[in-house]
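S.,

Sequence below, as promised.
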Amino acid sequence: MQKYKCKACGYIYDPEIGNPDKGIPSGTEFEELPDDWVCPTCFLSKDQFVPNKSYSSANR
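The prediction came back faster than expected:
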């Protein structure tokens, strides 16, 4: 599962964890997040996130 990093604050969205505080269950891929989902740390939109290969589960 690919993790994504907020370009502004560095928050890492991990699909294995999801974002339970915002009703996003574990196992939710980044692409499946609602269009109005925002970074829980700095509140920027999801288009401000980039794939973070160094945090990819495949690299563990």
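The CA atoms of residues 4 and 13 lie 5 Å apart.

Coffee later?
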